[in-house]
Amino acid sequence: MLIGELAERAGTSTRALRYYETHGLLRAARSANGYRVYDDADLRVVREIRTLLGIGFALDDIRPFVDCLRAGHPSGDVCPDSVAVLRRKIAEVDAGIDRMRAVRDRLHAQLTVAIESRESTCSSRTC
Amino acid sequence: MLIGELAERAGTSTRALRYYETHGLLRAARSANGYRVYDDADLRVVREIRTLLGIGFALDDIRPFVDCLRAGHPSGDVCPDSVAVLRRKIAEVDAGIDRMRAVRDRLHAQLTVAIESRESTCSSRTC
DNA sequence: TCTTGCCTTGACGTCGGCGGCAAGGTTTAG
DNA sequence: CTAAACCTTGCCGCCGACGTCAAGGCAAGA
Questions:
Q1: Contact at 8 Å (CB) between A56 and B99?
Q2: By the 8 A CB rule, do A77 and B113 touch?
Q3: What is the pLDDT of residues A88-111, one digit of tens each?
Q4: A57 CA, C15 C1': Å apart
Q5: Which of B56, B78, B107 lies at the smallest CB-CB distance from A103?
């Protein structure tokens, strides 16, 4: 499998795959003419990368999962480093949710005050 | 008030203030020597900008609030454009919270499976 | 006068995950 | 023979909110 086919099967671009390689997430054998050659294990790796990127992971966070897959584990989640990242990410997401809820409440309060202010100012005349 | 003092009183940098100016959020009178000169109304504007940036607004979203303040309103929230941005932002934040909750649940499930997998694999031998 | 400490404009650097283009080599089909 | 469709490396562009110089002007105290 060459890079174009891998990209298509993984639903991404060749540019992204080369990018993952330069960042140590993907390795490729080379054919005689210098072309990158991949197998199904690489396809699984790329799918893992894409899934985690979609969840909001950075490439650095993804590396343990990829290493875990390449170590022969059927899932990238089961290795200690991956579990540690999962725990950290859950905490980060929880914190993010808390922040966003605070923001939401604040915006809602501002909106309420703004509308009340408009009503009291404009109730009896054109505004 | 010169730009350095405004920056200090608003808790930001002179670079940021010039940046706001180039993006139409801040205007400055000029003294004879070309220095930017500000008053307390500008301080209020900058504080509004900083508050909204802190909440996660982009500069483009903030412009209506600044215009509202400069139109003489005591709060930047009360003008129709500001209210529209507030409503939109609340919706965006709500959507963001939903996405993050979905991510959280997914990560939690992955973590659970990973831990169970490790326990079943390693329970009776060194791992 | 000299230094210190403001101020000015302009332009490039940062971060992350690529997109897009250039300039070439390879392989296959017609 | 040539065109099409792959592949290679390398480098600049993008987004947003600034940071960080660079090179110079202005003001005020010792």
A1: no
A2: yes
A3: 999 999 999 999 999 999 999 999
A4: 15
A5: B56
